[in-house]
Amino acid sequence: METLQAxxxxxxxxxxxxxxxxxxxxxxxxxxxxxxxxxxxxxxxKRLRPLLVLATSEALGGxxxxxxxxxxxxxxxxxxxxxxxxxxAMDNDDYxxxxxxxxxxxxxxxxILAGDALLTKAFGIMASAAKEAGMSADSALSLIEEAxxxxxxxxxxxxxxKDILGENQQLTLEELQSIHRSKTGDLLTLSVRMGALVANAxxxxxxxxxxxxxxxGLAFQIQDDILDIxxxxxxxxxxxxxxxxxxxxxxxxxxxxxESRRWVKRLAAxxxxxxLHEGIWAERLIQIADFLVTREQ
Length: 297
Prior knowledge:
By secondary structure, the protein is mainly alpha-helical.
């Protein structure tokens, strides 16, 4: 079995090529809009969400070709959210993944429209991919409905709103967890569930994988909070210390740095335990959970 780093590199290259092909197929899109969309979508990054789609499908013996378009769709949703998060009206960030943010290159209006276009395209890709995979109408509609909930007002977007409203306030741990289950966790959970559903997961498998993803999402966010304090700006590709500057409640602020690190380890351990049963080939998913505990970017 290849190392996790090799897996990330190989699958990352596969995802990158698939995303590039999707952009090249959009010949009727205005050039400036397609350039703005591609600028952020093809900028690299960890590709954790699409990798989770592929790794989960693989863990259940699914077809990678059928899972790949769904992986691309979830990365489009994630990229749209980053473009909008970076805008002056939101986080007002100048750098993302080591280079200027979208609005700094293309302007605010084009960045907004590029995000809108990526989000909309993602749902079209899911619909086409479900048809190609031979999914039943009920299964396809349920998957797309779930994507709209987890990416929308009840999920990621709602979490972002709660995060904005929580600035300059001392949130409780429960309130902070509620924000991050939606803002960060819902899209990670969608990624895992998408890979499972495309691979025809059994109910017990889907339940275990969902709980795995929920713990993974919280561990990921706590590690993000930790890296905003102790991370290396060059490795992260963005400035550190922004949470404190914006007076945001974080896990280290509420729990302390060492206790936050213990939480990450505990959540990762729980996530790994959940996928050791139910006929899931879990080795890759376990490696990804371990990666989240030690990652530096």
